[in-house]
Design brief:
Structural class: alpha/beta
Oligomer: single chain
Helix content: 40-55%
Number of strands: 11
Strand content: 5-15%
Length: 474
């Protein structure tokens, strides 16, 4: 078991790429913000380095948490999300404003770690399912054959129930089996995919949740989960019959067989270790719980949230339904715009737990141009692909892209700076009429459309010029 857990930790939680290679991967999806990319790449590499240390020293090396400072839409969340996906580590994004001080109505901060543990369990379970996929598929075929080619019924012995299945040796009831296809014949047809559309009646487990969910909330959250699991395990598994195609039945049975083959206790243990050693928590809107100066009223609760977050960030043990999770080695990345508050407005103890400070710059025209065209998931690529499904080919000329970027920078300067999200509003307004008329255009034989600077001007110039109007529309 120890070898398996080590293997999972290596495959899921660690990444042996150099900081330069990590930055290069992030560059595929995020434009600019080199300083922030460099900081997270170093943090990731240090995690890999710490796993190479001797056991007596490894426990003393804790991650250096990161505080990102920058306006909305400049890439803070995307950097953290892509980082977690890159290393296949358990990742969770939470808003600091969703949590309340203990004693207030709302979510307590320990639910962050419970959610992280749940994410880790899903990851390990998915990998285990892949490992037993072939065996589960073979077992599912056998169960399908039991439904399609049932075994002949045996004669009933009235004393069988009294003497422990004494009728097992009774001869089968005489049946006309000449018209029934043989088991091997049906097996070949199943494997060839010739019976996928046939309707069969399948008995499946009823996964309706008990009413215990009403207990989850506030400090009763963990108790609600545990109580629900306890009641589910005590209640007999309810079965119900469903009429489904063979293709659907195959998927249902493969999933059920995979669950039987997976040792959930081992999955839980591995997931807890994975969350502890490789987990990444992204605390967004941390500036919204910062208290500027001395205040009273609701602000007391905000400072209380900071004090509740503190033990989790500095290292504590949180009880989850999968076991205790130590937070000492979880990497915390906090982020906020800090328009009205400053990092120094956080309580001193929390400031000290985020030693790496990195400021993300506001996006300029050149950045917007790159965001529109360069990343793998670039906005223009997305819009082109969406309209291509209608049969309409969309082409953006260079002057149009430059003009859109210029307008995005201008509107961000005139009103609130929402970073790259401004491009979404501009492009939706720009392509609104085209998206609406695309099916009719293709029906009339128009399959190609070129967007140039003149068209951008026609659709957006007046709105962008009028400051009052742009605040409402863009």
């Amino acid at each position: 078991m120890a070898t398996t857990k080590k293997k999972v930790s290596q495959e899921l939680g660690l990444n042996n790429q150099t900081p330069r290679e990590i930055v290069a991967e992030l560059d595929k999806f995020i434009v600019g913000q080199d300083e922030a990319k460099k900081s997270v790449a170093i943090a990731l590499r240090n995690r890999w380095r710490s796993h190479k240390l001797p056991d007596d020293m490894r426990d003393d090396v804790i991650p250096k948490n990161i505080l990102m400072i920058g306006s909305t839409g400049v890439g803070k969340t995307e950097i953290a999300r892509r980082l977690a996906k890159l290393v296949k580590a358990p990742f969770i994004k939470v808003e600091a404003t969703k949590f309340t001080e203990v004693g207030y109505v709302g979510r307590d901060v320990e639910s962050i770690i419970r959610d992280l543990a749940q994410t880790a369990v899903r990851m390990v379970r998915k990998q285990r399912t892949e490992e037993v996929k072939e065996k589960a598929a073979a077992n599912a075929i056998e169960r399908l054959l039991d439904v399609l080619v049932p075994e002949p019924k045996r004669s009933q012995n009235p004393l069988g129930k009294l003497f422990g299945n004494a009728d097992t040796d009774a001869p089968p009831v005489e049946e006309d089996t000449t018209k029934k296809p043989g088991r091997e014949f049906v097996r070949k047809r199943l494997k060839a995919g010739k019976m996928e559309d046939q309707i069969i009646e399948l008995e499946v487990a009823d996964h309706a949740k008990p009413m215990v969910g009403m207990f989850s909330g506030s400090s009763l959250e963990g108790m609600g989960d545990n109580l629900q699991d306890m009641v589910s395990s005590l209640m007999p598994k309810r079965m119900r019959k469903r009429k489904v195609t063979v293709a659907v039945a195959r998927k249902i049975l493969e999933q059920e067989e995979a669950e039987k083959l997976i040792d959930m206790e081992e999955v839980s243990e591995t997931a807890v270790e994975l969350a502890e050693r490789s987990g990444i928590v992204f605390l967004d809107e941390i500036d919204k719980v910062a208290v500027k100066g001395s205040s009273s009223g609701p602000d007391v609760s905000r400072e209380g949230v900071q004090r509740d977050i503190l033990p989790i960030v500095e290292g504590s043990t949180v009880m989850t339904k999968y076991g205790p999770v130590k937070t000492d080695y979880i990497l915390f990345i906090a982020a906020g715009a800090f328009h009205t508050a400053k990092p120094s407005d956080l309580i001193p103890e929390l400031q000290g737990r985020f030693p790496i400070r990195v400021e993300l710059k506001s996006l300029l025209k050149a950045d917007f141009e790159k965001i529109l065209t360069e990343p793998q998931n670039a906005l223009l690529k997305q819009y082109k692909a969406l309209l291509q499904t209608e049969g309409l080919t969309l082409e953006f000329q260079a002057d149009a892209i430059e003009h859109i970027a210029e307008l995005a920078e201008h509107v961000n300067e005139q009103s609130e700076d929402i970073g790259a999200r401004r491009l979404h509003t501009l492009l939706e307004k720009l392509l609104e009429q085209i998206s609406f008329e695309a099916p009719d255009m293709v029906a009339d034989g128009k399959t190609e459309l070129i967007i140039d600077a003149a068209y951008v001007d026609e659709r957006l110039k007046e709105i962008a010029k009028n400051k009052d109007l742009s605040q409402f529309i863009l």
